[in-house]
Amino acid sequence: MYATYFRRAVYMALVVTSPLAAQETSSGRAATDTSEWTRRSTWNVSVIQSRPQGAFGQNVGLGYGADAAWMLRLDDAGVWSIRANVGVAAYGDESRQAAFSETVGDRVTVNVSTTNYMIPFSVGPQLTWPNGIVRPYVNAGLGGIGFVTESEVKGTSSLVAMASTTNHSSLAGSWVAGGGVYLPFTVGSKHVAIDIGAQYFSGRTTRYLAPGSIVDLPAGRIAVTPLESATHTAILRIGARVQP
């Protein structure tokens, strides 16, 4: 079950962050290797676990996915930086088999699956201790958590969706605070660091779906019952930071 969540969340994270990566690649081609922008930029890619808190945690369970971050050093030492994060975590999944159509009946069946995603994002300053084999950091900022519930239809022996629809979407603004440590090492000429950290999202009240929020009714109709609460969430991450 968690493997399914993770695969789908990683896919959505790549969809969300690929335009940023493409922008960095194209700008890198246009600029020289010694450009100030390139020299001060670093990228993070991490796997994440979301841990809903309070009433939110009573409604939904743990989520698993991935995120990416871009950082711009504001000084040569790297003490002060601007950090921007965006990620995707899947926190609930339901599936069932159904007849492809009333005409065909059960001779041809399909898998109907519904997945709930949260999309945490933030931007703000980061303060880092820039020296040593362990380099702690703290960050803060503004951001939010987007919620998307998507249903899709696949053949029972196919990995490609034939059709999909978004059942619900919403957005909760948030202030964000976090911290962690970098464990630096080098790979060839690249400066790399293991990034182990966490962020706390003090999400505002919004409506979202969870497993059981969508009920199938006769004649192909559905009943959607959103949940509503504050969306306080802790995001745990482990990943790698690379400086071009």
Summarize the structure.
With 244 residues, the chain is an alpha+beta fold. It has helices at residues 2-30, 36-40, 54-59; strands spanning 41-52, 63-73, 80-99, 109-128, 135-155, 161-187, 190-208, 214-216, 222-224, 227-243.
Overview of the structural elements:
Helix content is 16%, strand content 63%. The strands form two sheets. An eight-stranded antiparallel barrel has the order 1-2-3-4-5-6-7-10. Strands 8-9 form a two-stranded antiparallel sheet. The chain contains three helices and ten strands, in the order H-H-E-H-E-E-E-E-E-E-E-E-E. The two termini are 36 Å apart. It has one domain: Porin.
Number of strands: 10
Using the coordinates shown, work out and report the CATH topology: Porin
Count of separate DSSP helical elements: 3
The count of domains is: 1
Task: Record keyword descriptors for this entry.
single chain; 244 residues; alpha+beta; Porin; 8-stranded antiparallel beta barrel; two-stranded antiparallel sheet; 3 helices; 63% strand; elongated; disordered N terminus
Q: What does the secondary structure layout of this molecule look like, with pairings?
A:
Elements: H1 2-30, H2 36-40, E1 41-52, H3 54-59, E2 63-73, E3 80-99, E4 109-128, E5 135-155, E6 161-187, E7 190-208, E8 214-216, E9 222-224, E10 227-243
Antiparallel strand pairs: 1-2, 1-10, 2-3, 3-4, 4-5, 5-6, 6-7, 7-10, 8-9
